[in-house]
Amino acid sequence: MKIDYVLRETAINLRRNITLTISAIVTVSVSLALFGSTLLLRQGVDNVSQLWTDGIEVIAFLKSDVTPAQRQAIQEFIDSNPDVGKSRYVDLKESRDEALRLFRANDAMRTKVEQGTRIPDSYRLVPKSKDINLMKSLGKQLAAQPGVFQVVDETDGIKTVTGVSAFAQRAMLVIGTGLLVAALLLILNAIRMAMYARRREIEVMKLVGATNWFIRVPFMLEGVFQGLVGSAFALGAVAALDKAMNRAAANRDYHTILEGFVASPGEFRLTMVIVIILGITIGAAGSVWGLSRFLKV
Amino acid sequence: MITFENVSKIYKGNVEALHGATADIEKGEFVFLVGPSGSGKSTMLRLINREETADKGRIFVAGKDIARLSTWRVPYLRRNIGCIFQDYKLLTNKTVYENVAFALEVIGRPRHVVKAQVPAILELVGLETKTSNLPEELSGGEQQRVSIARAFVNRPLILLADEPTGNLDPATSVGIMRLLDRINRTGTTVVMATHDRSIVDTMQRRVIELDSGGIVRDQARGVYQ
Predict the structure, then answer these.
(1) A200/B89 touch (CB, cutoff 8 Å), yes or no
(2) ipTM score for this prediction
(3) Which of A6, A72, A169, A262 has the fewest Cβ atoms surrounding its Cβ within 10 A?
(4) Are A282 and A227 in contact (CB under 8 A)?
């Protein structure tokens, strides 16, 4: 098979069927842009839940009359416990500063703290595992230590976050798969229409003795070109979404909420690669499938 | 060159297009297939080209049982068979030159062969001045000449013609028949389905008459009747 013939035929076909070429490219780009955006958002949801559960702590507030010996015993219990990842002691001053920071919008509470309400000192533990049962058992053991006033764990919070995250991820997966299937059908339909418009040409090629592969290759290249250009536009749209998220995350008002939601450069690149590979594969496979019925002469 | 041995072809809906057809066409023969519409003429041509396959019987083309050909070998069979049609089947977006060159390019002939053979065949069919025209800029007779040039440029062993003069006036038809006769004289076997009584009667070649899918007459130097 001659390369110059194949390239020339592909170029001529793309130019002469410009309307169908454009419609196939638009279909690929819109579908893949939606799919790529869903992938990126799914990654964002994953990052946010990861970030949230990473920062989860078990807090043991100490009694106001805790003795140094009791504190020493608590410290030893924490240091020797294999389930504890990281731990730190938050003294009275730091607790007060934290309370002032947290209540900065709540005048009544802030005033109380400023007027001298005691905020107890505490131990903050980050467990090695996010297993809820393990966290609860750790909390119970801590609460049993003399000198401990109250233990606050965030198992309910973890339950909620992991539940919401799992739901969001499933929803994104369903939406993404649905979009991909819709994209596939739309692209196949666009390619099939292009094939139908050229069934006479295919019939003549068959009649003069062209092999199936000889007929397929220029159509496949055409499909690859359409898939590639379509995915390039889709990449533009996904990149614009990523940029918008980065810009929004840079804004101080939304920083805390959106910080984790932004995909990392690595995740962004992976999404790009997936979109390009999908575009090319859909284009080439769609052409071969679209052509199959016209080759049965 | 072409042998039909008790061939039957049944289309969907139990329509029997051909039943028990037996005929032997020698190399270099010129054969007319005549008969009313639906008698099985086009089916015979489509079976030779393996656009269709027989349901019963065997067909040999150039010594090969074409039912036994694997799908990937069918294109190679077709390279030995040129086809012309009543509606020309030209590619409307290609010029006269490109339409003819296309037949060589798709079977992988080198560029220098295409450059040498296409002008020569266009001269043979009398279209050397119309190489850059699109089919729509040509008359019906000229379009059929392009179709003949495309079918013959590869020097096939067999030329199948399905009512090639069906859309042409008598004078133009005579020109087309002269061309087919000339091609036949080079040794190419020509099988032509036609309704044109005057052509068959004038040329006095072998006539195979079909009726309701059966061969009812096979006559050397016959007439239409």
Answers:
(1) yes
(2) 0.84
(3) A72
(4) yes
